[in-house]
Task: inverse folding
């Protein structure tokens, strides 16, 4: 146990406040920091807890995967009322795809938090998704289902889970909006700039104007995502005017 | 919507109080009975809710499956500290095996609650497990994660999830106890009798005595399960005397 404490103490000194980083990433104060320490410890360090059990992120990854599955299932159950069991299963597997989880972990910069005996360059691409799952598992252990769900809502569902996109009915809200503007002879402008604010992670903001009037704002971890988000918001503003059918 | 209400009203008249049955099975008062009505409606009736979406147990089955996965994962995470991700995954799949879920649904007599346009005899064996999953989904929708976890603890984890058995270290606590009694020249007696009490489901009770002294009691939905449960309790009473190793 001493070994674990020392490692994270020295990390605090070297890399800044671990507690503060976790708080920024999760959006709430951690209660039991040890859960997060476990979530960011790689097996290469060979650490054990006081019971002599392995102390690394792999078990939390299992737990986080299960919690993600449950929270996403509950969300899709509510949002896709017409889909049967097979359809919901298919949609969930799109949301929690390995590729998607890797993107989530990469966006949050989780690899920066890892403690390992091997260099970061040696990790495969799946490390990002694995750490993301482990983080969800740590949140569940630390604060329970409600907080895990809240985190998944904020970091997975709100920015990424778009029923129309999952169903392939809309590929890109930005294209949809641009097509509509061109057809309707309206001018449009995506004013996009870096705006990381208090965030640990790089962020971008967008102000979207149509015919010189600002219609939507958005903020995300890449220019592309921020513009897509703003276009989606504008789409909902103009919902009656922009009809999906006309582009299908 | 009218159609749904009528069907369940007529069930109430015919089969007794649906609310009461759900309360007995779950152990708490349902808040939104419609969730449970959905969980026990078969697609053969072709019912729809007021939004025109299918109203049958299949979607709740998807939700319940996800909640079972999450709750069992959390339990194994806590109980099997030495197991890595792959090991935990393997153990979970034993607990939520199709065969096991069918047993759970059958024990609770869930098929008696179903409303379908086809005769009960025509359902395959998996209907029991499907209804069990749908019931878990209904509990989550009605009362949230906490109640779903409580139900899973009472109906799945407490009576069935035995780490030593899952790991194949103990096949049967009853055999273990009998072997020990024979070796130690002790007499034993399983006094087993039907004892359904207030339960909707048939139950059995066991009083287990060793050398004429009662050492454990148990109650379950079959003689075999009740005796196994009592033997397990006795095993923990005699833990220092009965050593697993001596039988391996």
Result:
């Amino acid at each position: 146990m001493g070994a674990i404490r020392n490692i994270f103490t020295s990390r605090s000194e070297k890399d800044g406040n671990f507690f503060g980083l976790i708080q920024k990433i999760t959006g709430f104060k951690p209660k039991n920091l040890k859960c997060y320490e476990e979530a960011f410890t790689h097996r290469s360090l060979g650490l054990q807890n006081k019971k002599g059990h392995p102390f690394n992120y792999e078990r939390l990854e299992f737990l986080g995967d299960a919690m993600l599955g449950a929270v996403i299932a509950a969300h899709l159950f509510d949002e896709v009322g017409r889909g049967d069991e097979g359809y919901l299963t298919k949609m969930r597997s799109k949301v929690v795809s390995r590729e998607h989880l890797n993107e989530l972990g990469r966006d949050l910069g989780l690899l920066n938090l890892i403690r390992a005996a091997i260099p970061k360059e040696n990790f495969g691409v799946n490390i990002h998704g694995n750490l993301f799952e482990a983080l969800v598992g740590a949140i569940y252990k630390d604060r329970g289902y409600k907080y895990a769900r809240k985190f998944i809502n904020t970091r997975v569902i709100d920015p990424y889970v778009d029923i129309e996109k999952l169903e392939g009915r809309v590929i890109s809200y930005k294209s949809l909006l641009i097509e509509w503007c061109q057809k309707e002879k309206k001018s449009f402008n995506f004013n996009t700039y870096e705006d990381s604010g208090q965030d640990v992670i790089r962020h971008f903001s967008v102000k979207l104007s149509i015919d010189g009037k600002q219609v939507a704002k958005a903020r995300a971890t890449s220019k592309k995502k921020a513009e897509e988000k703003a276009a989606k918001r504008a789409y909902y503003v103009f919902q009656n005017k922009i009809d999906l059918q006309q582009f299908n």
